[in-house]
Write a structure and sequence with these properties.
It comes from Nonomuraea helvata. By secondary structure, the protein is of the alpha+beta class. The protein is built from five helices and five strands. It has a single domain, classed as 3-Layer(aba) Sandwich (Aminopeptidase). A hairpin with a 4-residue loop joins strand 3 and strand 4. The longest helix has 16 residues. The termini are far apart.
Length: 158
């Protein structure tokens, strides 16, 4: 079963974010708090959205996503920040079901893109996405500013 997250899911969502960060060998980067997630997901103007996969009343996985906008297409899209299925629930179709829900939302709302990133060493996830018919966008390089470089740029006076 796939359903939108509720405020009561926040502790489980945070737990899965930390599980995913550990899997991606980046647990030190997972700094989000329950309060931050609650504010981001359940404020009057949410910054992101979560769908939960459940099996027999147990949280099996989640996807966290937010809206993008394409200047070329002139419409919104979805950027899937995280897709995670707990190891004991893998192979039961939860990942596909979560992706299908995002595709359904895109179709229902007229969004024309569903995008995400995957680590280049994560072969099981790459195979999963390839199997769905996703196309690798290898001509684009992804950049990121965080922490001190971001602060330094924001403070520049030139």
């Amino acid at each position: 079963m796939i359903r939108p997250a509720t405020p009561a899911d926040v502790p489980q969502i945070l737990s899965m974010i930390r599980e995913l960060a550990t899997y991606e060998k980046a647990e030190h980067e997972a700094q989000a708090t329950e309060q931050q997630l609650h504010a981001a997901l359940f404020s009057d103007h949410p910054a992101a959205f979560v769908h939960i996969a459940e099996q027999d009343g147990e949280v099996a996985g989640f996807t966290l996503w937010f809206l993008t906008f394409s200047t070329w297409r002139g419409v919104h899209g979805i950027y899937m920040e995280d897709l995670y299925v707990r190891p004991q629930h893998r192979g039961a179709g939860h990942g596909v079901a979560l992706m299908k829900e995002l595709a359904r939302i895109c179709d229902e709302r007229g969004y024309q893109r569903l995008e995400w990133s995957v680590l280049d060493w994560n072969e099981p996830s790459i195979a999963f996405y390839d199997n769905l018919g996703a196309v690798l966008q290898d001509e684009w390089l992804r950049y990121r500013l965080t922490d001190e470089p971001l602060q330094r740029l924001g403070a520049r006076q030139d």
